[in-house]
Amino acid sequence: MSKRQKNPHWGSTLEHFLDEEGIRETAKAEAVTRVVAWQLSQEMKRKRISKTRLAELMNTSRAQVDRILQAKGNVTIETLQRAAHLVGRQLRLELV
Q1: Which class in CATH covers the domain with range 13-86?
Q2: Distance between CA 28 and CA 34 in Å, rounded?
Q3: DSSP letter at 89?
Q4: Half-sphere exposure of residue 17, counting CA atoms within 13 Å on the CB side?
């Protein structure tokens, strides 16, 4: 008998809930984007690169950099790769 079956107060898993709602893949993609955005912002702080400076380096607007760092909207992999490169990092994607 599994631990879940022994404890009547044990709920379903988050993955099960997301599957039931049909949003698991969307939630995972958003979570990954948020982690990358957080890592970019941490690297910017470490290297003392302002949002304005990153926008200049990317030839884009400060508003676009804000969207990238807040993981808002549809940020492309290419945009994340460029931002990562400009802060001295590399974006790595892989199939597992």
Answers
A1: mainly alpha
A2: 10
A3: -
A4: 5
Please return the burial class of 61, using the count of CB atoms within 10 Å of its CB with bins 0-12, 13-18 and 19+.
exposed
Distance from C-alpha of 71 to C-alpha of 68, rounded to nearest angstrom: 5
CB hemisphere CA count around 93 (13 angstroms): 9
Token couple for 39: 């890592």
The sign of the torsion formed by the CA atoms of 47, 53, 59, 61 equals positive
Query: What pLDDT does residue 12 have?
Result: 76
Q: What is the token pair recorded at 36?
A: 């990358």
Per-residue pLDDT of the chain (96 residues; tens, 9 = 90+): 555 566 665 767 888 888 888 888 888 888 888 999 999 999 999 999 999 999 999 999 999 999 999 988 788 889 999 999 999 999 998 888
Long-range CB pairs of 54-57, under 8 A, 24+ apart, other chains included: 54/83, 54/86, 54/87, 57/86
pLDDT confidence of residue 68: 93
Three-state DSSP state, 27:
helix
